[in-house]
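Q: Please design a sequence for this.
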């Protein structure tokens, strides 16, 4: 497959749909993945993210539309003829082969055949890249989960693909090791400069590693953006709920002016929202959902200690408290708002002792902290 303009997207979906009988796995997908980018498909089971990955790999073909690799249409091109490699969730390593022969397997299938000297050099380089230098003669069962994952990465990278596809490769690892491997994967991608495309249902995994994240729902792309864009400027409630934690309150826009929008919540409370910080201007009388991230909520025993720019101040009862190390998560309750979450960093609690269960405290958030989300999306 020939090379193309370096500014050409390395992967493109152009009006792609995929049907399995009556089941719609992907619907009218349009997406471009740039060379050297780390992009993640994020969404719940059955949203279409794995189908997209398999159409890039060549394991599935689109029912409608076109898939391009390096500017070349690849509909009907088999997987072994595509400049991509895939790391599977369960690694798919060969238990009867040692590490060196596992990594060399793809190289030995190449046509024209490579010399043994070149194969050994490529294998050595790949194992060194994933920090497994000296593990050549080890067997698969002698390795930890993290080391097996590195072998799978080395086997995929040794062929020098244009795109590396990762199908939930960290799902089998424990939390601490998964976090370590997230950092290693990110560093590895930067070092080799290969385009990485990851499929995951883990928001932390996607946000921590990716340049951009593609949020999917029911076979459709909902929003594509950087992790910060998706977190700070979600397009709708689905994205705000899937990326991070948030509190949601339904209401209606009453009026707009002077950079603010007046909102009347269904629970009877009224407040102003800063339009400039929010980035959205909703029409008067429009139904909306107000989203407040838990870390944006300020807690205090004395109302006088709350910020002066509060959009609203209420008194709530602490229903539950969970210590999470770097912060404490509080489940609060107020008659009109019901239950909602707040996060208090440790440095904040250093100035005021932790709040106790059943204690009544004051709660507020700023006008700039509230996001207005369109109920129609």
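A: Design:
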């Amino acid at each position: 497959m020939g090379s193309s303009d370096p500014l050409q997207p390395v992967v493109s979906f152009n009006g792609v749909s995929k049907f399995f009988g009556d089941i719609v796995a992907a619907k009218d997908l349009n997406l471009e993945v740039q060379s050297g980018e780390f992009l993640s498909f994020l969404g719940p089971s059955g949203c279409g993210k794995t189908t997209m990955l398999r159409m890039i790999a060549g394991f599935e073909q689109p029912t409608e539309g076109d898939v391009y690799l390096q500017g070349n249409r690849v509909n009907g091109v088999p997987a072994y003829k595509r400049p991509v490699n895939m790391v599977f969730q369960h690694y798919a390593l060969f238990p009867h082969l040692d590490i060196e022969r596992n990594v060399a397997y793809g190289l030995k299938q190449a046509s024209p055949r490579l010399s043994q000297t070149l194969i050994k050099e490529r294998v050595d380089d790949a194992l060194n890249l994933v920090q497994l230098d000296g593990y050549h003669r080890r067997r698969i069962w002698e390795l930890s989960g993290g080391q097996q994952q590195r072998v799978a990465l080395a086997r995929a990278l040794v062929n020098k693909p244009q795109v590396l596809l990762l199908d939930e490769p960290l799902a089998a690892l424990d939390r601490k090791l998964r976090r370590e491997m997230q950092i290693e994967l990110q560093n590895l991608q930067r070092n080799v400069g290969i385009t990485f495309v990851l499929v995951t249902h883990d928001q932390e995994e996607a946000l921590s590693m990716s340049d951009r994240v593609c949020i999917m729902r029911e076979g459709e792309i909902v929003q594509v953006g950087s992790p910060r864009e998706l977190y700070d400027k979600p397009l709708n409630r689905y994205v705000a709920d899937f990326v991070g934690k948030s509190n949601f309150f339904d209401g209606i826009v009453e009026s707009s002016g002077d950079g603010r929008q007046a909102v009347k919540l269904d629970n009877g409370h009224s407040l102003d929202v800063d339009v400039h910080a929010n980035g959205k201007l909703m029409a008067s009388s429009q139904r909306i959902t107000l989203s407040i991230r838990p870390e944006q909520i300020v807690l205090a025993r004395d109302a006088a200690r709350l910020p002066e720019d509060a959009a609203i101040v209420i008194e709530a009862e602490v229903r539950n408290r969970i210590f999470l190390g770097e912060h404490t998560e509080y489940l609060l309750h107020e008659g009109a708002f019901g239950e909602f979450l707040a996060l208090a960093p440790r440095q904040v609690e250093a100035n005021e002792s932790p709040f106790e269960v059943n204690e009544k405290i004051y709660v507020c958030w700023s006008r700039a902290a509230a996001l207005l989300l369109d109920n129609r999306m």
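Q: Thanks. Anything notable?
A: The first helix runs from residue 49 to 57. The chain has ten helices and 20 strands.
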